[in-house]
Design brief:
By secondary structure, this protein is of the alpha/beta class. The protein contains 16 helices and 19 strands. The strands form 5 sheets. The protein has a 7-stranded mixed β-sheet.
């Protein structure tokens, strides 16, 4: 294949993955990023002796990171190191039940049996079914383009079609979990996995019960240096193999001629290219960069996924009993967080999950202190009074954590920074500040995501959380692989 000049718009995780793969094929790759840093949502900041990872707090399926270093023929240990966690999460319930989710499946089942009203074999069987759902659908829904006819001619696709009833696509995740488990706490435990793609367990289909498999089977990992080291390692890898980066360069237009992408425009400068890849959110890509072309309104108007309200707290006391990921369930939602949601919201989950991530490395906080990443899922930005929501949420979050940990958290906060959907939208150009693009609250959601290519414009491709296969680090990395494969096959 002849070397191509390829321009990538955006240096998010998917943009970095695409750049590494395409450059490894010998193409000339340049990345143009509006911010002064790479990584998109996966970035970090430091203040007053504290270091905070700003974006995703969960690292799973590291094989997709490993794969990029193999493709680039570089030793991963020179760039990136991580370790598997023995405890996935600690859970705190309003009735003072606590539960540590162990990484080992059998030990997890044994502990769940002791804590909840369930037989350990029921837990093991649930996770086996999760694995079967993943194995049946991952090739079709995650690893290939859903919008190419050849995808449907594979043996894997035929197996998925034959066993479609085993995928539980016609019931909600909550309905599926409620049928399997009697204990409401365990239902809430498994309902939480809907938040991994920004959906509601009361709307997203039961096939999403495959998500616990990703956590329990593949494991949860901690990257040395924090989550931001994922961005840093991929950025360094891309530079070392010859990818060119241009920061503080906001693209104004994707140039097309005769139904083919020919480059980009930044201010009055035209940058020619054989192929253009947009790692920008698909909505602003059409609204701002492809104004001359008819937009796929049905796709763009899909309801957005949930966003996040995050408090970055510097805490003046260590909590050695807290592990990396700690999930607090709110079971008295109506009195604590009902002001956040309304009936029109996609994420109208009557259980609010408070995710607290504390430090793993001593350098992340001053001695005797901790850096807390405190997040709740909230709807995307549609003009709500966020200042009021932030104030009330902060009060209620502090009240809940203090109640469950039996400590006055408010008195221990010495530093605070806040990230809300408005800032997420302005910082990352994610439409409405949605974390995962369109919501996955329909059994047809995967098919309604924008393809990784555009039939009406040759040599234009799309990657990232707002297009197929979806949001989150693993799926963004896979979108980079899909785009690279499509370019190799069609050029």
């Amino acid at each position: 294949m002849k070397k191509k000049k390829i321009v990538i718009i955006g240096a998010g995780v998917a943009g970095l993955a695409s750049a590494i793969r395409l450059r490894s094929k010998g193409h000339l790759v340049s990345v143009y990023e509006a911010n002064e840093y790479p990584g998109g949502k996966l970035t970090a900041f430091s203040a007053e002796g504290y270091r905070f990872d700003m974006g995703p707090s969960l690292f799973t399926m590291p094989q997709f990171i490993d794969e990029l270093f193999k493709v680039a023929n570089k030793p991963i240990e020179n760039y990136f190191q991580y370790e598997r966690k023995s405890v996935v999460c600690n859970y705190f319930f309003e009735d003072e039940t606590t539960f540590s989710a162990l990484a080992d499946i059998n030990k997890f089942a044994e502990e769940a049996s002791k804590t909840f009203n369930v037989d350990s074999e029921a837990i093991v069987e649930y996770l086996k079914r999760s694995k079967r759902k993943y194995d049946l659908t991952s090739t079709l829904f995650l690893e290939k383009s859903l919008h190419k006819f050849t995808t449907y001619l594979s043996t894997e696709t035929l197996k998925a079609i034959i066993k479609v009833n085993a995928l539980d696509i016609n019931v909600s995740l909550n309905a599926y979990n409620s049928k399997v488990f009697e204990d409401d706490r365990l239902v809430k435990f498994f309902n939480r996995f809907a938040t991994y793609n920004g959906s509601s367990p009361y709307k997203t289909p039961g096939i999403m019960s495959m998500i616990p498999h990703l956590e329990q089977y593949f494991g949860i990992f901690f990257p040395k240096g924090g989550m931001h080291s994922i961005t840093q390692s991929l950025y360094q890898l891309a530079k070392d193999i010859g990818v060119k980066f241009h920061f503080n360069k906001k693209v104004d237009e994707i140039i097309t001629e005769k139904r083919s992408a020919k480059g980009i425009r930044i201010d009055n400068e035209i940058i020619k290219a054989d192929i253009v890849v947009s790692n920008s959110d698909v909505v602003p890509t059409y609204r701002q960069l492809l104004k001359k072309h008819k937009a796929p309104e049905k796709i763009l108007n899909q309801p957005r996924s949930s966003s996040a309200l995050i408090f970055y707290w510097g805490i003046k006391k260590e909590f050695p009993e807290l592990d990396l990921h700690n999930i607090f369930f709110s079971e008295d939602y109506k009195s604590e967080f009902d002001f956040i949601f309304n009936k029109k919201d996609v994420y109208d989950d009557p259980t609010v999950y408070i995710n607290v991530t504390s430090k793993e490395e001593k350098s992340d906080a001053p001695k005797g202190c901790e850096n807390w990443f405190v997040m709740i899922n909230v709807p995307s930005n549609t003009g709500q009074n966020w200042d009021e929501i932030i104030e009330k949420s902060r009060t209620n979050i502090i009240s809940k954590i203090s109640r469950l940990l039996k400590v006055r958290v408010k008195e221990l906060i010495e530093f605070e920074s806040i990230l809300d959907p408005r800032k997420i939208e302005s910082n990352t150009q994610s439409y409405q500040g949605a974390l995962y693009g369109a919501a996955s609250n329909s059994k047809f959601a995967s098919f309604l995501r924008h393809p990784n290519f555009k039939r009406s414009i040759k040599n234009l491709y799309f990657c990232g959380g707002s297009v197929h296969p979806g949001g989150g680090i693993p799926l963004c990395l896979l979108s980079g692989r899909i785009v690279s494969d499509l370019i190799q096959k069609t050029n």
